Here is the input.
Amino acid sequence: MLLNGPSTSATDTESAVDTDSATGRRAPAVAMLRLLGGFQVSQALYVVARAGVADQLTDGPRPVAEVAAAAGVRPDLLRRLVRTLAAERVFAFDADQDTVGLGRLGHTLCADAADSLRDVALMWMDTHYGPFAGLWSTLHDGVPAAEREFGKPLFDWLAEEQDRLDGFNAAMGNLLALRKDALDSLDLRKVHHLVDIGGADGTALAELARRHEWLWGTVFDLPHVVTAAAPVLREAGVSDRIGTWGGDFFESVPPGADAYLACFILHDWNDEQCATLLDRVREAAGTGARLFLVETVLDEGSAPEVATLLDLTMMGMLEGRERGRADWQSLLSGSGFRLDRVVQTGGPMCVLEATAV
Here is the structure.
């Protein structure tokens, strides 16, 4: 009925919702219907992430009723949910045996998976879903939908409650998996002291310090954020080489390091704000100091569709955006940096290497 227009016959409708036999691809109306239903899929993913369903399946398929009992949900409704998500390769559902196992993507909802996105699924319920209902207004007045939803900029809203901040930091830790290939591509052979700008809980710098025993560093972020770094650094066994520094990177950045890293930071901000941040880095860095930016570069990288999706996220949530190579070069040169090269990685992020001139 949804696909049936005023002049469409029943035969035409059946053809419209079927697979195009000549091409083997879904008919446009079917493909569009799947896109329109995306909000329902994302909510279903939140529910199974919150219930810990994927964690129940790490040892193999189990009866649906057994999984439902362990998760504390109704088996008849869980069955319908996993059947839907099986079509998205999250679960493998055996209707005859009434069992559910992990599909190709399912492990990413497990809490302990190396590439887990479970905390992202949980955080987006609180932060992203509500604001995106206001995207229509954003398209007209440019005010981020999140700012309209929360009555203030997103980061100000997050800082009001520790639970919000903890959830955000956990989600950013998840996204480290997307940055792993970029971190692997960082050339730190000549770097002695690295400042991680916006380093949050220190996860990234701790990993780099574990790999490079000569590396010293500083995790730099807002005072109420960087307090979470100390236990991470201790657990990683690098607290003797990696310290913390609280401050606002729009005001100043720790001086004197021979290299600075901003990992997935500048895309949060508009061009004017980025220029201010880069100016503060240039003031702190001596001539010849290195700057590493881990960001997406539009139309480049192994997964360019990630950049366009993140650009939509920025539109709804913040004033930032994803940028192309020419945009990055313009920003860097305007603040006294020379863009030396853009390193493609095995993931969606690139490494932009620059030098203070």
